[in-house]
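Example 353, ligand N-carbamoyl-L-aspartate.
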Amino acid sequence: MTETLTLIRPDDWHLHLRDGAALAHTVAWSAAQFARAIVMPNLKPPVVDTAQALAYRERILAARPPGSSFEPLMTLYLTDATAPEEIARARSSGVVHGVKLYPAGATTNSDSGVTALQRVGPVLEAMQREGMPLLVHGEVTDPDIDIFDREAVFIDRHLEPIRRAFPQLKIVLEHITTAYAVDWVRAQGARDARGAPLQGATITAHHLLYSRNALFAGGLRPHYYCLPVLKRERHRVALLDAATGGDDRFFLGTDSAPHARAAKEAACGCAGCLTAPHALELYAQAFAQRDALARLEGFASRHGADFYGLPHNTARITLRRAPQPVEPSLPYLDDAIVPLAAGTTLDWRVDAG
Ligand code: NCD
Ligand code: ZN
């Protein structure tokens, strides 16, 4: 049995850090494990241009623990009003690494999202030209589509047409949750001039570890509610196959999405799972189910960097097999926050130092 596992320090290719006082918590959690993270722009109001992304980046840098070299990789929030010229500005800033597409109303703080994809054609054209990745929340928002079908319907109705119209566009299908998404990504074989895939997908730890049964285990479990929602077991198995299979189109993105306890344990609770504090241990837990720990480094530390055209990190991190009880809650703002898997014991620990 593997007792210790040393990896290239990983990156998180999909993360919510929030803003203001939350940064003191969220940046510390991620900086403890990850070298870099793609930071989602769904603040209130959203980060819609390069100037706002630069200012947000400074706030994140200022919240780093002493001595941390954690690097936030910024994104812009695509709206119906995004100007195509903004893409060249974003590219030349050197700090914006993607543009996020939220269908309007799909998830937390997505009211400013895109209402019709035809409206953003010129922006996508500019992104294809500039080599700027499009990061996609792949769910339709039509109320008549069953929540468990929203990802597959988005792929058919929207993603496939975008892919056909912009064959050279770099696209990440974020936080995939279904066998349908895995198969669709696997069918996209095109590569860029560097040999990196044009199509990637991030996978969260919670979608690797849990099926939708976790939402209803003995009662309603709000801390397992996120969007896209957990799916049935056969989809979890397909995601685990994809993550552990060594395919460079699949990489780590926690989608760690903090909401204070009161906002989760409510009549209308927020979507989002907090995984950042134990992210790597949760992924190790999933990879160990397949005896695939040797594949964790590619998924966590190489595939994403290669997709984004960034160097691999030089630092290393070590996981040690040792029981780690997950805290029932952690301090957060003037409330508390409940991490995913609270009350359970993980099999791994990240070695400090
Ligand atoms: C995210 C959030 O809270 O910002 N929530 C979630 O359930 N994943 C938004 C998102 O990425 O969908
Ligand atoms: Zn997210």
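Summary: DSSP finds eleven helices and 13 strands in the chain.
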